[in-house]
Design brief:
Chain lengths: 227, 341
Amino acid sequence: MLDTFREVVTPEGVVLQLRAAGPVPRALAWLIDVAIRMGVLVAAGSVFAVLGRAGAGFYLIALFLVWWFYPVVFEVLWKGCTPGKRALNLRVISGNGGPLGWQAAFTRDLLRVVDMLPLFYATGLVSCLLDPWGRRLGDMVANTLVVHDAPPRALIEATAAPPIASTVVLRQHEQAALIAFAERGPRQSLARQIELANLAEPLTGLRGEAGVHQLYGLANGLLGRNE
Amino acid sequence: MKQELFVQRYKHEWDAFEHWLNVRGESAKDARSTRRQWHGLGDTEIPARYRRLCQQLALARRRGYSPVLVERLQLLMQRGHTLLYRTPAPRWRRLAMFLLAGFPRLVREERFCMTLSALLFWLPVAAIFIATQYRPELSSALFDASTLHKFEAMYDPHDAAHALGRGSETDLAMFGFYIWNNISIGFKTFASGLLAGIGAVVVLLTNGVMIGGVAGHLQAIGSGDPFWRFVAGHSPFELTAIVIAGGAGLRLGLNLMAPGQRRRVDALIDGGRRGALLCAGVLVMLLIAAFIEAFWSSIGWMPAGVKYSVSALLWLSVGWWLWRGGRNAAFDGTAGEGATR
């Protein structure tokens, strides 16, 4: 329940890692959407009020569309985002990691009725907290997920340093840690880099800035860089 | 292979793939119209490139390359996956095919739930209607006095100029009201089925008792004629749609309670899929019903004979549609939904 990383195996046999969204960002997104829907309805109400008694009919049709189809239309046509979800960087996707279809979007929208019971999405909240994917009941029945949308990032190059061959055989996760340090280190303060490098003193035999450079060198050696 | 060499060797592939996604992956329509101006990676190569990327991602993970690299490959792969596995755009032809063939087939496939739902709705209607003929005071137990008075005013047989079935609202206002109110009830009937089917049962029984009560009361006090003239037109679509929505809800509830040899969640997903399709049909039926109810049923001067003949015709066509729709061999395989279990 604490780990929100979930894995979906695609037909190509590769694991897709998804970050399931919890109840708080979803509730915030919902609040934004409610505000937008209210705004649209108030605007529609004042426009249709001009039309007199027939306007009431148009208003009720607008109410019907906004109430039932606002999430469906946005989620299908706008890559799984309603405006609220876009603001919170959330996205609804199909349970297999693919994009959402009309039918799944409609199902999860219909079952909102049950999730809203008895008050303030209580059922949905309980379901969201119990489920490891953070799904509400409608998500389970429609086989959909709400995930955090990861922003695209450029490939960060590891810090260049004269490569040093390691005298000790490092295990795979240790190698990964060293390379990650070389990639992410320069974005941290020097004090933090030194603090981290000091932890690796048993490996480098050095402390302080020299240790940092030694680690960068080892990482470059592991990456297979030449002079 | 060391990471550096791996990146060096394949980086241009990833960049080309990413560039293609950025330029041509957004909309299929734009991609088609700009086909001639595009000189990068060919569209037909994309699936192969995507599979290659998947393999490279798997290799990168297995070999423990840095998280930054793996994350970049995963993002690319996820975008490719989203693109390749997107659901086809809806087509008008398929929609028409669904309404004519797929929907009736789906209803017939769920005949057990539909029959159950029809019984849950029609038995209380009949029982309350008959009961109020013998004990007219029963209606005051079901409705309070002001509600009864409102119903009586709506169907006053001595006020021929008055539109049937409403107060002073216009046709258009009532059309909006029927859409909002009736379709919401239909959708809620289905959705409440998730509460172990109890929700759908309660909605069906309540609606049955209410409708039976109103009909029985008005018949008993002698306002039967305007009432029947009003409901005759739209009832074929409206009542059938409510029964179908209830049946879809019961299917969902049954799948939750007795999933059979499936995981419970898989049974629910199947119930939800069928339910959503049935609800799409219910939506169309209730739209037709709302239209008839607002613009046809309320016409007060129409002789009873015309109203009842139209009603009979509509009942027959709804029945024929649900019973025969999609049985034609021409629809086999094309209807898609509802064709196979």
